[in-house]
Design brief:
The complex is a heterodimer of chains A (223) and B (237).
Chain A (H helix, E strand, L loop, with lengths): L1 H8 L10 H33 L3 H13 L2 H12 L5 H24 L3 H9 L4 H35 L8 H9 L3 H29 L12
Helix pairs in contact in A: 1-9, 2-5, 2-7, 3-5, 4-5, 5-7, 6-7, 7-8, 7-9, 8-9
Chain B lengths: L1 H10 L9 H8 L8 H32 L4 H12 L3 H12 L3 H25 L3 H9 L4 H31 L13 H8 L3 H29 L1 H8 L1
The chains are: A mainly alpha (223), B mainly alpha (237).
């Protein structure tokens, strides 16, 4: 508790490039950037593979392998190979690790839609793209959002670890504090990151509540 | 012959300049020091296997309770969902005050993450028991405990083991984050690679961790085959 008071009470922690607001913004910026890139790659790919049914095995194998990849190792490897001239060597592994949860859940979501529902949509005269956009995606939305949430959690955690390789963000308080034995900074930074992660979690719950159709989430009895 | 030449360079015992991957691996595998790759591998196994099994031991009773008393499930799953969202590094850092720079500091959070995955698996697994099977067991005079042990749990095995596979693979790769507090098993190779700066330790670490994860995954698939022989028998007919 004393550490928390010390950390949050220090005036210099609230201003400048190393202050809490700046670090928070950096953390948000890197996380959003990585997640956005992952979304741009993984969602169209997942929709395509789920809709056409081709390459499903590849997705599952990739996802399992990706879960086994140690984030810290990947970060260190990319930084050693590509240098630290830009933040690219850190962003690449962040994106790589963010892709699999979105890809797999989008794929599984589209695959898992009741075939009768899909056939009914075709029977009503919808074309392939319309079936995907108006029927498959809304029904698969809970799973797609689950993938996004898992991915966001992963990105927030990995951005924290990326501070070790010189990236900014809230992880700096924790990692710099640990190496200089400034435990107020370690504990304060840790609490900030935990709160950040919880806010992300709540945000996704709200998004899910707002975007998923009441019929799909069974908030409304359909029969 | 390019590949032959490459293999020769990789395997060549003596060369000038920095050591190749294999030389480095050979030289550091068993140095007798605490940080030899062999010892790091053992540390890594301890820190990943303990949470995997501890998570099962915790998740089974919690899952069973959630099935028996339905109202328990939502809050239990909710709490573990929140825990699962907490990034590992700050959790390690906050735990240091209680358990110091020890393996426990890594093992405890990994166990909680594991539970977050396994509790839903146990609940879904028991939910996958067909109602007519349960009723047959009741009609045959099975007591509730025997029904659970001999009918319901065996049928739940595939779903629970699917959860175990996720837990095993992610625990094995997550242990390496512990390197940032000096308890990372093979993850220590990553901090070593970054500090020196030298690529081979990072590569060796990544490859060994992925291999460990694949072996654990394979063993769990094997376990599922042995524990549920009826699945294959049904496919064969």
């Amino acid at each position: 508790m004393n550490w928390l008071l010390e950390f949050f009470g220090k005036a210099e922690n609230w201003s400048g490039s190393g202050g809490i607001p700046m670090r928070l913004l950096e953390h948000l910026e890197f996380s959003v950037m990585a997640l956005a890139l992952a979304v741009v790659i993984a969602i169209p790919l997942g929709l395509l593979i789920g809709h056409t049914g081709k390459g499903g095995l590849g997705v599952v194998v990739t996802a399992n392998l990706a879960r086994a990849l140690p984030t810290l190792g990947l970060l260190v490897l990319f930084v050693l190979l590509l240098g630290t001239a830009s933040i690219l060597p850190v962003i690449i592994p962040l994106v790589l690790l963010a892709i699999p949860p979105i890809l797999v859940n989008t794929f599984e979501g589209i695959r898992g839609v009741d075939p009768e529902l899909r056939d009914a949509a075709y029977g009503m005269g919808l074309r392939g793209g319309q079936v995907l956009g108006r029927v498959l995606v809304p029904v698969a939305l809970p799973l797609i959002l689950l993938g996004l949430r898992l991915s966001a959690i992963q990105v927030v955690a990995t951005t924290t670890i990326a501070a070790y390789t010189g990236l900014g963000g809230l992880g700096r308080f924790v990692i710099d504090g640990f190496s200089t034995q400034d435990y107020a900074s370690v504990v304060g930074g840790s609490v900030l990151i935990v709160l950040f992660a919880l806010v992300v979690q709540v945000l996704f719950t709200v998004v899910r509540w707002v975007t998923v159709s009441p019929g799909v989430s069974q908030r409304v009895k359909t029969r | 012959m390019a590949s032959g030449a490459l293999v020769a360079t990789l395997l060549s015992p003596v060369s000038d300049g920095p050591p190749t991957l294999w030389e480095w691996l050979g030289r550091n595998w068993d140095t007798g020091r605490v940080d030899s790759i062999k010892n790091l591998l053992v540390d890594h196994l301890i820190m990943s296997l303990v949470p995997i099994f501890a998570a099962l031991v915790v998740a089974l009773p919690l899952g069973l309770a959630s099935v028996r008393w339905r109202w328990l499930y939502q809050p239990t799953a909710g709490v573990f969902n929140v825990i699962y969202a907490l990034p590992s590094l700050p959790v390690f850092m906050l735990l240091i005050q209680f358990s110091g720079l020890s393996k426990t500091t890594v093992i405890v959070p990994l166990t909680f993450y594991g539970c977050a995955v396994l509790i839903p698996s146990v609940v879904d697994g028991l939910g996958s028991v067909p109602d007519h099977v349960r009723q047959s067991a009741v009609a045959m005079g099975f007591t509730p405990l025997r029904r659970l042990l001999q009918v319901e749990l065996p049928i739940a095995v595939p779903v629970v083991l699917a959860g175990m596979r996720v837990v095993a693979v992610s625990s094995i790769s997550l242990v390496s984050v512990g390197a940032l507090i000096g308890q990372g098993g093979l993850g220590m190779l990553f901090t070593r690679a970054y500090q020196n700066p030298f690529v081979p330790p990072a590569l060796v670490g990544i490859v060994l961790i992925v291999l460990l994860a694949l072996v654990a995954d394979g063993l769990l698939v094997l376990a599922q085959r042995l524990l549920t022989p009826w699945v294959r028998a049904r496919r064969a007919t």
